[in-house]
Amino acid sequence: MNESVSATSWTEKRLLLGVTGGVAAYKAAELARLLTQSGTDVQTVMTESACRFIGPVTFQSLTGNPVFTDLWETNTTNNMAHINLSRNVDAILIAPASADFIARIACGMADDLLATLCLARDCPLILAPAMNRQMWENPATQRNLNLLKGDGVLVCGPVNGEQACGEIGMGRMLEPCELIEAVQGVLQPKLLQGRNVLITAGPTYEAIDAVRGITNISSGKMGYAVARAALAAGANVTLITGPSCLVAPAVSKLLNVISANEMMEAVKKEISQTDIFISVAAVADFRAAKISKQKIKKTDEKFTLHLEPNPDILGYVSNLSKPPFCVGFAAETEDLENNAVLKRKKKKLPLLVANLVQESIGSDESALVLFDDAGKHHLPRAPKDVQAQHLIKYISLAYK
Known about the structure:
Blueprint: H1 7-10, E1 14-19, H2 25-37, E2 41-46, H3 50-53, H4 56-63, H5 81-87, E3 91-97, H6 99-106, H7 113-119, E4 125-129, H8 133-137, H9 139-150, E5 154-155, E6 159-162, E7 168-172, H10 176-187, E8 196-201, E9 206-207, E10 213-214, H11 221-232, E11 236-241, E12 253-256, H12 260-270, E13 276-279, E14 286-288, E15 307-309, H13 313-318, E16 325-332, H14 336-347, E17 351-356, H15 357-360, E18 365-372, E19 375-383, H16 384-399
């Protein structure tokens, strides 16, 4: 699953490495070295702020290519560096991506060479954020990132750790080897080219009365990450999502639902054209037997709520006469392996992905265990976007 970087897999690949202002710029130098060593042609573009932290000559020495810093470069064809530099690359990676740079490209600004390249590109864009934890947690930064994700930009990291300011928290840039894995995922062959993939994501909400309901703490992050990875692999993706505050990826078809019954009906309508069904959604197991149209008033008396089971969406799909390739998710609180094996057997799934709730839901990272006929396969803790890329690659191999 975690393949090492090889010269064979990277030969003739061209990457534009964008470096913005931040202490983590020193990691970009190691990243450039490793990529070049593996056979990638790396073209570096630096912002003015980046040059305050590390010199252009460092990247020129490591990559063997000239480094561009100025929007008004005069030594390129037609004096159009902002167009030419992005036309011959397979992807653009910004590492580190500062809070300021993220804000500027989220607004579509083109006020320096690197931002203009991102706006004028026709290739995938990957961001590796790096900043102080307060900057990362600021609502403005999160809004900008959600907007970019919705536009199809892949955001890798950051992770929790010690920062240059001495504080500990989210905002530390991924290590070079982790970023190389993310780039590999984007530049991989289109393993699901032309395949129709149906994904469910997020929680469901089951009304009790006009204002109350039964739901869970699923954020939708994993489902949305899987959708982005499937898109990157060339699939035609339909995403059915329960309530989520996330910006949905730019999928072929997006269906918003609320309850388990609504999700079931949406799946039934879409499943006939589906090659691969990935059931990531955390569907509520039960719903109220009777929903009050008015708010139920509080009294001093005990209140009994009668529940009835919700439909088993994954079970329905896996038991069709000609089911698609079905992938289930199991979020457990204990005895993960036994519970996952039983669920996979009961629902006749070729592949089941399991994780511990307390280590995953709501987090930007997760550790996964894949269960199939060959046994179990561990994916060590990593950002969900990276895990989703591993999962899609695994599915593409199993589907064949």
